[in-house]
Design a protein that fits this description.
The complex is a heterodimer of chains A (245) and B (108). Chain A has 245 residues and is an alpha+beta fold. Chain A has five helices and ten strands, in the order E-E-E-H-E-E-H-H-E-H-E-E-H-E-E. The longest helix of chain B is centred in the last third of the chain and has 35 residues. Classes of the chains: A alpha+beta (245), B mainly alpha (108).
């Protein structure tokens, strides 16, 4: 298997090698005005990924490397990132892929051009309802009234956070070309990726800051990640069969 | 591997995108070197469990100086709350002492 020329494919981009500042290990394989950034790879490198600690192991290294190559291209040109671990059988296969999937890839690339992806996450864990009022000098009834008021305040804060988070999502969507909800574990109210035109990033972040202040005051954790290459907006499958050769 | 100087994004965010998103090549011009779906599932479980542990206050290791060197500061906070408790106990004792003599006077 090692005699064959396996190529790890990172991203589809424009076929303009001069614009790219690739490190020596990677190269651009072009077909018409599209190209795929590839690097020669020993498939055995991926072999032992099972059973490894994702936080500090080979998988982490390979994933960061994949992201780094995609980002290097993205600094100069629009990209369609390819799924991690895409390995193609030589340059002929890369060109065949572009030939067969040309229109689809070209359209997707046009759609994401001039955009960057930003992630927005809002987390809120309500304060423990177990904190009890100081009972000193209170009658039983007064104590229960205080306690009920406290629980009600917790509930109202939560409702306010949920409302503000929903408004934040609405407003950010207006500044984005597309948005994609990501999985939300317990306690996460918003976990959304936005595809934002570069020209609207300033407005997008100004809105974010405005709502983030309100949410933070209410006790929520608000964060943004990015800019990312448009990973969350390239959920496409390009199919190539051998008989199309 | 000089290209690792990439981004400051968290590994969890990178894994979520790199493994779960991006163009998929179907057909027979490639080989599947990685069972990406299985990997994705495992990463999700890992992230979920770390996050859940944090939310449920079960992330004891993050405050243990042995596991997390940054925990020293948290320990300081803890000793501060111990001081607070000591102050409250002293305050309650003082109030108790004030209350006791007045009750002794009542029968007279």
């Amino acid at each position: 298997m090692s005699e064959r020329n396996w190529l790890c494919a990172y991203a589809i981009t424009r076929n303009r090698p001069a614009e790219l500042d690739l490190d020596p290990a990677s190269r651009l394989v072009g077909y018409r005005d599209l190209g795929v950034v590839v690097a020669e790879v020993e498939p055995a490198r991926f072999d032992r990924l099972d059973g490894l600690d994702p936080v500090d192991g080979t998988l982490a290294e390979l994933a960061r490397e994949h992201d780094a190559v995609v980002r290097a291209v993205f600094r100069h040109e629009p990209v369609l990132p390819l799924r991690f671990g895409t390995v193609l059988d030589g340059e002929g296969s890369v060109r065949r892929l572009l030939e067969v999937a040309y229109d689809q890839a070209r359209n997707c690339l046009d759609e994401v051009e001039g955009h960057r992806e930003w992630g927005v996450r809002v987390r809120y864990t309500e304060p423990a309802a177990t904190t009890r009022p100081d009972s000193a000098g209170l009658t039983g009834t007064q104590y229960l009234v205080r306690r009920r008021e406290r629980l009600k305040a917790v509930q109202q804060t939560r409702e306010q956070v949920v409302r503000t988070a929903a408004r934040l999502e609405d407003v950010l969507r207006e500044h984005a070309t597309d948005s994609m909800e990501r999985p939300r574990p317990h306690g996460v109210l918003v976990n959304t990726a936005y595809l934002v035109p570069i020209a609207r990033e300033t407005a997008f972040h100004a809105e974010f800051e405005w709502f983030a202040r309100e949410l933070r005051e209410a006790g929520a954790t608000v964060e943004t990640t990015g800019p990312w290459p448009p990973y969350s907006f390239t959920d496409v499958e390009l199919g190539v069969a051998a008989h199309e050769r | 591997m000089t290209r690792l100087a990439a981004s400051s994004e968290s590994l969890a965010d990178i894994l979520e995108r790199v493994l779960d998103k991006g163009v998929v090549i179907a057909g027979d011009i490639g080989i599947s070197v990685v069972d990406v779906e299985l990997l994705t599932l495992r990463i999700r479980l890992f992230i979920a469990s770390a996050q859940t542990a944090r939310e449920m206050g079960m992330d004891w290791w993050t405050n243990d100086p042995f596991f997390a060197p940054n925990a020293a500061r948290a320990e300081l906070d803890e000793s501060k709350s111990k001081n607070d408790l000591a102050a409250r106990v002293a305050d309650l004792e003082a109030r108790l002492l004030e209350a006791v003599p007045s009750r002794q006077e009542e029968p007279r």
